[in-house]
Amino acid sequence: MLQLSTIKAITLDLDDTLWPIWPCIERAEKVLHAWLLQYAPATATLYADPHARRTLREDTERQWAAQAHDLSVLRRESIRLALQRAGDDTDLADPAFDVFFAERMRVELFNDALETLDWMAQRWPLYAVSNGNADVNQVGLGAYFTGAVSARDAGVGKPDPKIFLTAAQALQVAPQQILHVGDDAALDVLGALDVGMQAVWVNRAEHLWSHAQHPHATVASLTELRDLLSAG
């Protein structure tokens, strides 16, 4: 059960908590493919093959294992590897990634996200904690957040304690006084609990909980989260 009186700050996951991620990725993939058709058609053909794309991803992850937490590096280098294997100019990897990333930043928020963010930001400092490479400023939400830490920034991703403790240190608030909100049971909830934070699981899809530890609360929407927090 939440101890609302002890909450001094809130940390929030981004992808699939404030917006659905896969529509963003799918659009970005299509925009990237269209760009490659114009500037690197051989690579576009290679990248269009699901098996080839999976192989590229796996090979990139092996080659860049030390950067496994940095999704931007993995995406850029996967494009570079595709260009190389297709015989195109590998210098196109950077502009190609920029095209992909710009579209990836065009998120479509869940209907309850803005209202809830505005309500929470008037009451607590909010801090983004994400394994992804979304930028709260580029997606238009910077005004609601006092800061953000990504896996790239921390050098590790959730559920590693370091990324949560980095946020706590930046907020100058003890982990026990922070509420973390996220959609992923293991990465968000268990990760937050392990450093002493309170945790709310945003379970929009009605998944079953399968871990020994439990969140302090489970909500089906951000509206429900706002109602829960306003109860105190």
Task: Write up this protein.
This protein has helices at 21-39, 41-48, 50-63, 71-86, 93-104, 113-121, 151-154, 161-171, 185-194, 222-230, and strands spanning 9-12, 126-130, 147-150, 178-182, 198-202, 217-219. It has 10 helices and 6 strands. It folds into 2 domains: 4-19 and 110-230, Rossmann fold, CATH 3.40.50.1000; 22-104, Four Helix Bundle (Hemerythrin (Met), subunit A), CATH 1.20.120.1600. The longest helix has 19 residues, at 21-39. It has a 6-stranded parallel sheet, sandwiched between helices. The model has no long low-confidence stretch (mean pLDDT 96). The protein is elongated, with a radius of gyration of 19 Å. It has 232 residues and is of the alpha/beta class.
Layout of helices and strands, plus pairs?
Layout: E1 9-12, H1 21-39, H2 41-48, H3 50-63, H4 71-86, H5 93-104, H6 113-121, E2 126-130, E3 147-150, H7 151-154, H8 161-171, E4 178-182, H9 185-194, E5 198-202, E6 217-219, H10 222-230
Parallel strand pairs: 1-2, 1-4, 2-3, 4-5, 5-6
Helix pairs in contact: 1-2, 1-5, 2-4, 3-4, 4-5, 6-10
